[in-house]
Amino acid sequence: MTTATDGVGLYVHIPFCRRKCNYCDFFSLCSVDLKTVEDYTDAVCREIEGYREEKKTPVRSIYFGGGTPSLLPSALHAKIHSAIRESFEVLEDAEITLEANPGTTDAGMLRELRAIGYNRISFGLQSIHENELKILGRIHTYEDFLASYASAREAGFDNISVDLMYGIPEGTVESLEKTLRAVTDLSPEHISLYGLIVEEGTPFHKMKDNLNLPDVDTECDMYEMACDYLARRGYSHYEISNYARRGYQCRHNLIYWRDEEYIGVGAAAHSYFKSERYGNSASLDEYFSPEYEKYRCREEIDGKEEAYEYAMMRLRLAEGISLSEYRSRFGKDFTEGKEELIDRLARGGFVTLSADRLSLTDRGMYVNNYLLTELL
């Protein structure tokens, strides 16, 4: 668990979008007026100030996610950053990330955001192909992305991540490879590659019977090609959906995957802080209330559930589970009673087991949901 010396992660949820993408099931709001955005910013600042203590909590990463945080005017970003620095001790080398939609940034804004303190930016590209972007419901073009990427470099961002998707309707192994080639030619420090999941409540779910989705074998071929291609281009597959050049793993997300402490502010944000898990309401009316804390959902976690979550999150990472750390933390051996299963999975190329570490291979990561059911 994170100690006060290590510092916690701070997540800020900005739930505003110009238009909801066809696959998105995150909490977000479209067509919101500026007054609501300003009121939301004030509410976020109030929540941040509620964490102010005599001895400020150290923060080693800040992540603005959404929604589309790049829709927020620079002055409101500055206001939230000011509240953060007044309420927390932001460590000198903290990673400070902004999620951005390429259709919502320009050169001047990116310079302002860099000056405010952001040192990492994550662009949601998804694909370089216009037909795939249109099907996904993205508001930007590939050309928009190229312009935003170049402007971010000019603004001084030397840590850029690009989000991509595979398993897209009309997508092929060849179209994905072209996207990977175009993106890696730009040399971003980090790439996220997510397999499309058709979630309930999304436009894609309503049209699922008419979506021209790749079949299971093709999607597997996409994944295997991507793992091989990105490795050859110098990107280490350090988490199920994430690849990075050496030293550029997303430090904020590693806090989640290593089961360390973080604070989430904003509507629908969740926290794991001082050994307690809790989450904010997704209702703006409730979140805006001066008594918003009464709408928080608090979660009690027993030892068995904590051990399950620890193993589940650690097995997302290429580094896997330290068996000695698991034994020290939970008082039992992770592999006990699973020896035959682990041996069978290792012979099948799904896991690797060393003296002190169990981890999933690339093949195992692709079927991680099935393996986690078996192992946990």
Strand order of the largest sheet: 9-10-8-7-6-5-4-1-11
CATH fold label of the largest domain: TIM Barrel
CATH homologous superfamily heading of the largest domain: Aldolase class I
Instruction: Calculate the terminal CA-CA distance, rounded to whole Å.
Output: 21 Å
Radius of gyration in whole Å, from Cα? 21 Å
What's the assembly state of these chains? single chain
Percentage of residues assigned to helices? 25-40%
CATH architecture of the largest domain: Alpha-Beta Barrel
**Top CATH class of the largest domain:** Alpha Beta
Quote the beta fraction. Answer: 15-25%
Tell the overall outline: globular
Unreliable residue runs: 1-5
Q: What is the count of distinct domains?
A: 2
> Main beta sheet, described?
9 strands, mixed
H/I helix tally: 15
Would you report the number of β strands?
Answer: 17
What do these coordinates show?
By secondary structure, the chain is an alpha/beta fold. The protein folds into 2 domains: 8-257, Alpha-Beta Barrel (TIM Barrel); 303-376, Orthogonal Bundle (Arc Repressor Mutant, subunit A). It has helices spanning 34-49, 74-87, 107-116, 130-136, 142-155, 173-184, 203-206, 216-232, 251-257, 284-288, 303-314, 323-330, 339-347, 362-366, 368-375; strands at 8-14, 16-17, 29-30, 57-66, 88-100, 120-126, 160-166, 190-195, 236-239, 242-244, 262-265, 270-273, 276-279, 297-299, 321-322, 351-353, 357-360. The protein has a 9-stranded mixed beta sheet, with helices on both faces. A 3-stranded antiparallel beta sheet has the order 12-13-14, with no helix packed on it. It has a 3-stranded antiparallel beta sheet with strand order 15-17-16. A hairpin with a 3-residue loop joins strand 16 and strand 17. It is globular. The two termini are 21 Å apart. The model is unreliable at 1-5 (pLDDT under 50).
